[in-house]
Amino acid sequence: MGDEEGMSYIFSVLALQKSTVEKKKPEVLTGWPNILAAKRFCACYAPPASEIMTKLRTTWITAVTVALAVAACSATSNTVDDDGAGAGSSGTSNDSSSGALGTGGGPDNWDGCGEASYGNEVPGTILIVLDRSGSMSDDNKWGATVAAINSMITSAAGDMNIGLLPFPLGAYKDQALLPLCMLNPASNPNCPQILADGGCSDVGTVADVPIAPINQSGGPIASWLNQNNPNGNTPTLYAIKNGVQIVRDYPAEGPRYLLLLTDGIPTTHTPAMFTFPEMFTLCGDLAAIEAEVAAGAAGSPAVNTFVIGSPGSEGAGEFLSQLAVNGNTPKSSNCSPAAGDCHYQIGTANFQQELEAVLDQIAGTISNCVFDLPAGEEIDPNMVNVVIETANGKVEVFRDLSHLDGWDYTDSSQTQVQLFGPPCELYKQEKGNKVIIVLGCKTKLK
Hints:
Elements: H1 3-28, H2 32-45, H3 49-75, E1 92-95, E2 109-110, E3 114-118, E4 120-121, E5 125-131, H4 141-155, E6 161-167, H5 178-183, H6 191-197, E7 209-213, H7 214-227, H8 236-249, E8 256-262, H9 286-298, E9 303-309, H10 317-326, E10 344-345, H11 351-365, E11 370-372, E12 384-390, E13 393-397, E14 406-409, E15 416-420, H12 422-429, E16 434-439
Parallel strand pairs: 5-6, 5-8, 8-9, 9-10
Antiparallel strand pairs: 1-13, 2-3, 3-16, 4-11, 6-7, 11-15, 12-13, 12-16, 14-15
């Protein structure tokens, strides 16, 4: 009810009271019974002054309430969640409108109370730990691997950090003496050291192609691959150990990974047997390699490990899958190392195509959906919200402390947010998708 309508009602009531009394008085106000009847008549049809004041007060309250409701509707007309879904079991809510969060075509404000800006994704870092042992020359595995890695470099996000650590390095100088020491350990005073190493430590402590944004390191990686060939044994323990340290030392804030690509069982410690002496002590055993991968994932900063088995590694399926589990990158939550289905196993028939697909999948996973909060301003961590902008509209993401379907802060510093589950997958579906960080509105929890 508006102000004019309310005042009209009040004046009409007063007019009714006056006209009722004036019309009835000449006809019925004679004698006490008629006077009482007139009073009852007026009491029924003419509201007393107290009721009139109550009506007036109600009119003004109604008018103020309507005005506030209109203002609230206007303020929320630019929100992401047009259908009002701000709670429930889902971690996201959709808005298929193509308009921006705020006025003017950009993420200027949100929900009438906050300011918004596009979040800067924190790029992931990956070091390709590439098995270049002699067996990689079989069945054109090396040529297909080179082509697949080059394809990944071309299609991966330009801000991803990537480097290359092939193993063995090819710097083991005692390779010619190793067979002699195997046959006769007394043939050379250095045989104990030669047998203990045997090339196990022939892995660089720095990457052959240092880690850098892929638009800087992609070319050097392609050049190295095209100019080198497989040779030597498979010192996987030192490859993992040195690789983890290289990635850990790289000054990056995003998620960190190794990508181990190998075609077989590693060179491992061999105890004395028959007339042959103990060898390859520094290579460790399979359990030592598994422990090294687990230590990398559990360290600070964590370095997780993807594992790809190329043709020839089928017999090492259980071991390679255990590495993937220890490295926090199993293919699925219900895989089993015993079944050998936790790592990426590539077949011979379509090796290059399958490897390209796996590398592209891993490159997408490395994004990991971590975003910086806007710098240079004080931020109340309880007044932050997250929205995904896609070609089909905007999707509001709720904070999810279970890290299953929503967003949360990456650590106690609360300077970065990370998407989990379906929201992360939605963000990575298209390269043009963006994340909007909204400040100033109370955080919506799932």
